[in-house]
């Protein structure tokens, strides 16, 4: 599974936009397109020729992408929205600016029959290769098989994905254990058909641990849904035991995909200044030398 380049985009504001309404103003909004696909629509800012949006997004770029464009339109409630103008930036222009883009850009025409005027302020940074993270939260189980002489089990969970394994704590003497533990896996190095396996085992001090059941997840399907949560029926490890399927109990899980992103350090400057102010001016802490490695923005895909 290939890693994907990601853009941080901030649609800041516009100015000198044309009058499109009889009120002598406009109701501008912005649509962002990757090639021909619209992926973002900002809020509409009513009755202004100098809108401020201040909206931020992380945009994942497909390998085949050529151009990202920003279309500014005037919203009309009774008729078709009016076109104001656009800004188009191709892949080559982004590659030529590894430090990113930050500034005012003139709008160009969308409709050749319409005059165009105005500018928009954009901030764009290439964030590079962003790994996708699968988080599996193991919440609880119910109706587990009784494997011990005391009429219960000592269950724990083993989560496997792409040769990596995590294990939960052992809950003693329970067929209704609660774990509420989370485990994370990076998806980018695994084939699309690699399943996530969540297994429940009964821990034994002296003898071999007993297998209680498992749940398998199709990661490719999860990428479309981004999240799955609920009770999942445990199934046996081998098909020959299929007659017992449905009697092994159930496991409550939450699965989510997310992209972990560390933005360019300049985006954290207001936060670092605020943190230093809260510590106190008497400490004389310099925000310019403050390390930013611990500050990160997590963009959930959901």
TrEMBL record:
Keywords: Calcium, Metal-binding
One GO MF term attached to the UniProt entry: calcium ion binding
Chain ranges of the C2 domain: 1-105, 116-232
Gene3D superfamilies, per the entry: C2 domain (2.60.40.150)
Keyword Calcium tagged: yes
Cellular-component GO terms for this entry: membrane
SUPFAM superfamilies, sorted: C2 domain (Calcium/lipid-binding domain, CaLB) (SSF49562)
Transcription recorded as keyword: no
PROSITE patterns: C2 (PS50004)
Protein family: Belongs to the MCTP family.
Name of protein: C2 domain-containing protein
């Amino acid at each position: 599974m290939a890693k994907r380049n990601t853009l941080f985009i901030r649609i800041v504001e516009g100015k000198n936009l044309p009058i499109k309404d009889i009120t002598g103003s406009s109701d501008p909004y912005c649509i962002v397109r990757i090639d021909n696909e619209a992926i973002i629509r900002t809020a509409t800012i009513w009755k202004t020729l100098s809108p401020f949006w201040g909206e931020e997004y992380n945009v994942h770029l497909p390998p085949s992408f050529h151009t990202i464009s920003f279309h500014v339109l005037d919203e009309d409630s009774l008729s078709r929205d009016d076109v104001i103008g656009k800004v188009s930036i191709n892949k080559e222009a982004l590659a030529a600016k590894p430090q990113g883009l930050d500034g005012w850009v003139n709008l160009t025409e969308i409709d050749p029959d319409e005059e165009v005027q105005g500018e928009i302020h954009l901030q764009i940074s290439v964030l590079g290769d962003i790994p996708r993270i699968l988080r599996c939260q193991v919440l609880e189980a119910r109706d587990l098989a009784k494997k011990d002489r005391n009429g219960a089990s000592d269950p724990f969970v083993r989560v496997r994905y792409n040769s990596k394994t995590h294990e939960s704590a052992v809950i003693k003497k329970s067929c209704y254990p609660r774990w509420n533990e989370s485990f994370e896996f990076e998806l980018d190095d695994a084939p699309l058909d690699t399943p996530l396996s969540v297994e429940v085992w009964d821990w034994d001090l002296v003898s071999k641990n007993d297998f209680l059941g498992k749940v398998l997840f199709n990661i490719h399907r999860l990428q479309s849904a981004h999240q799955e949560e609920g009770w999942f029926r445990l199934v046996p490890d081998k098909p020959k035991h299929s007659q017992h399927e449905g009697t092994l109990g159930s496991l409550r899980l939450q699965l989510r995909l997310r992209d972990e992103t560390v933005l360019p350090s300049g985006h954290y400057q207001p936060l670092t200044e605020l943190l230093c102010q809260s510590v106190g001016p008497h400490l004389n802490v310099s925000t310019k030398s403050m390390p930013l490695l611990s500050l990160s923005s997590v963009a959930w895909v959901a």
